[in-house]
Amino acid sequence: MPLTAGAVEYRLQIVSIYEEAFAALLRPNEFADGASGPGLNRLEASLDRAEFPMGAILWDRPLQTVGEETARAYGAVTVRPDLPEVTGGRRLWHEVRWEGRPGEQSVWKVAPSGLRVGELDRVALKGRGPLRHFLPFTASASGRRGHALSVPLLYLWAEEERGTVWPGYLSRMLELSDGIAAVIGVNANRSFADHVYLLVRHGEEPTTYKAVLSWRPRDRSHLNDLETPGADHAR
Fold first, then answer.
1. pLDDT at 226
2. How far apart are CA 160 and CA 118, in angstroms?
3. Which residue among 67, 73, 228, 230 has its CA within the 20 to 30 Å range from the CA of 173?
4. Alpha helices in the chain (DSSP H)
5. Alpha carbon 50 to its chain's center
6. Strand spans (E) along the chain
7. Is the pTM of this model over 0.85?
8. Which residues are within 8 A (CB) of 109 and not within 5 positions of it... i.e. 6 or more apart?
């Protein structure tokens, strides 16, 4: 993809996996918020080499772009991503590439189609630095900033409609010093999955940003009467 004047090429790689598979690779001290370490490095390397078990990956939740109005509501610019061709072997990361300018930010969405594994439990993010584990936090009066914020999905959608989700709220709550942060839209309707928004702050140099999303099932007793036969996630 030829670069236009003043533009830098960025990449974003994401994968969604089962909570058990995520936790199995972490060392005890890597369960803390913001932790990094050999277990997370091993997880990243196994995904890079396509050695991570394919049966532990949720394939029904690819990365999506957002429209111009939604991007503007998140303080972001619209981008035209390029999907790299897979010439051989297998690829476990879902990757997009795009041109951008340093200092701008872009926003990306993950909206699962499957129902049974619908709760986003934890995330691992990599921007300028190693892959780090983050536990989603909820906003409080303390004014704490974090890399993974948990917000009611209906509230998020309402603020999107008003165009104020970034200037009026997220800009005060998210920590983007590493170049990437996640917003988890918690679905109040327990029969449907959470949504995830990834905000990327464009760096000065070409950068590959990464996000590992860890999911766990909703309460099965709640879903038994709500799902139609065959509503399991796609593989």
1. 36
2. 22
3. 67
4. 19-25, 38-48, 68-73, 153-162, 171-173, 220-223
5. 19
6. 8-18, 63-64, 94-100, 105-110, 119-126, 132-134, 137-138, 148-152, 180-186, 195-201, 207-216
7. yes
8. 63, 64, 65, 66, 195, 196, 197, 198
